[in-house]
Amino acid sequence: MQCAKPRFINITVQIAKELRNVKFVCNNSDLGCPKILNYEEVPGHADQCKYLPVKCQAYNKCKTKCIRMEIEKHQAVCPNLQVPCIYCRNYVERMNIIAHEQEECTGTYTCGKCGMVIIKEETQKNTHNCFNALAGYL
Fold this sequence. Notes:
The chain has a domain at 18-51. 35% of the residues lie in helices and 16% in strands. The chain has seven helices and eight strands; from the N terminus they run αββαβαβαββαββαα. The chain has a two-stranded antiparallel ribbon. The protein has a two-stranded antiparallel ribbon with strand order 3-4.
């Protein structure tokens, strides 16, 4: 008597079926994420989770980590974050911007629309007008 030919099932298909029935809590549940996920939802949620810990853009100096949904609030006031000077468009740490504007700033930048050089006084008085600036060349 000979044994019947063995039947093999595709194990990956079987595991995939089982995984569909398993529920997962978010890795950030200890930080407040309430999501309970299906297996298929886990990768997409991990990339979008509002509770994912993220570093401030100025992390090298401020050393702040927040959950994703709070990082904008932190960066809106972070003294170490680089912000653009309104006169010369150079980036300066927020805590140094006033000193930069009063002492270091050359006060000129090139207008992105017309290509003219804008001086500090034009920016302060809001008098630059691309059409008027270019009219002199027509």
